[in-house]
């Protein structure tokens, strides 16, 4: 399921569940670029914007392209968690990351095996609302059809 893993990772990169991630400084510190922060300062990073940044991902950063995660032999290639920040990195990396991927793969495989999903109105623009979690304004209305032969 190498391609499925890449497709899920690409989706999470472009549409992270947590699009804005604030942190509070517990002590004075200096960021890697030399910027000083003081105890109590809030520092935010933006996984939603980072997943679309050409400087990080290349000129095709805004394209849905699962192949960017595969090596020449078709195997999934892990990126540095400080580059792909959807699950955080370092000491704060998500303990449930592997479980999350396992669940996504199981549900994707089962649902896509039995059903076809189509947008109810493929002409309607999809607009996102950045809150604690990434929301679609007005929801995402889809029609579900049983696959033939299942």
From TrEMBL:
PANTHER family: CYTOCHROME P450. Heme binds at residue 94. The keyword Iron applies. It comes from the Eukaryota. Keywords: Heme, Iron, Metal-binding, Oxidoreductase. It comes from Solanum pinnatisectum (tansyleaf nightshade). This is Cytochrome P450. The keyword Metal-binding applies. It holds the Pfam family p450. InterPro entries: Cyt_P450, Cyt_P450_E_grp-IV, Cyt_P450_sf. GO terms for molecular function: heme binding; iron ion binding; monooxygenase activity; oxidoreductase activity, acting on paired donors, with incorporation or reduction of molecular oxygen. Its cofactor is heme. Belongs to the cytochrome P450 family.
